Amino acid sequence: MRGMTRYDAVGDGQLSRRRLLAAGGLTAAVGLLTPMSNALPAYAEDDSEPELGTMAVCSGNPYVNRAWVGESGWDLRHRTGWNGLVGVHGGRHSEQFNATFHNRCNTWLQNLDAIARISRPNTSSSWGIQWLGDIGAGVCKTGQHGTGRALDISRVQWDGGFVDLNKHWRGPETRVVKRRYLAVVASCRRYFRNVFTAWYDTDGSHVNHVHVDDNGNNSGGVNIRTSHKGDTTIVQAAGRYLGVNSDIAIDGIWGPITQSAYNTLMARFKMTTSSGGCQTYNPLSSTADMKVFLRWVIRNALADQNAGYYHSPTC
């Protein structure tokens, strides 16, 4: 029996959709499907590409300078270019954060580190976090970047592997790296209510990074919302990549196929008494239960296993 207890906190917030910076913005996004030069592409304004704004919080907003996230030894490294579809990152660098938001980022990455270490016990490496890639935090522009309460993540580097958040969600990529992308997105959703991904947007503004923010407040996260496109795409991706329904569309529409995939995931995670679990959870109405559900998504995805390899305790 493989079981885990429930713990930790989540983030909160909501953000408006982006619009393209210029007529060429969508063309640039489509161009990401082919190998790229070292030039950084332009996308949308607001919270898409921080390079388009001044790399500092807007005047009057308190901030701290931080060159790390999670632990002081886990460098924050800025993406500076491209090697094909994989981002090239420089050395350790500082970003401006709202202090409370930076603490939330610390808790998120510490938790991802802990889950990765216990999810891959039979490998030669520990799968501990080494560094985090970014394309900006505090940036003087509209949206949460202007107050230092947003972070755009480009890569997660463990000592046993990595996930590039531009490359590894795409169709031609292998299942193992798509599962890593899913794991990172699911881990973000446990701590940040706003998580914008390549699956979330239709305008191409988040195809090359994952955006997280707390919408300017310190409240906790929420249950999985069937009316929310971002939440729905996470459930759909879990169904597709964790061996439930390889044909399910990741379109953000919660219909009977998505409901069926969700029900199967719940059963495989032993999150109902009818499936052999010790209790019945309801991630659709409970924040605490949402965290349990996404924990099993993360653990199975990082272990490169189908849903159910790791699950809640059985009785």
Describe how the helices and strands are arranged.
Layout: H1 25-31, E1 64-66, E2 75-83, E3 86-92, E4 95-97, H2 99-119, E5 129-136, E6 150-158, E7 162-164, H3 175-191, E8 194-196, E9 210-213, H4 229-241, H5 256-268, H6 287-302
Helix pairs in contact: 2-3, 2-6, 3-4, 3-6, 4-5
Can you characterise this structure?
This protein has 315 residues and is an alpha+beta fold. It has two domains: 215 residues, no CATH class; 94 residues, no CATH class. The chain is built from six helices and nine strands; from the N terminus they run αββββαβββαββααα. Strands 2, 3, 5, 6, 7, 8 and 9 form a seven-stranded mixed beta sheet that branches. Strands 1-4 form a two-stranded antiparallel sheet. β6 and β7 form a beta hairpin. α3 packs antiparallel against α6. It is globular. The N and C termini lie close together (10 Å). The relative contact order is 0.16.
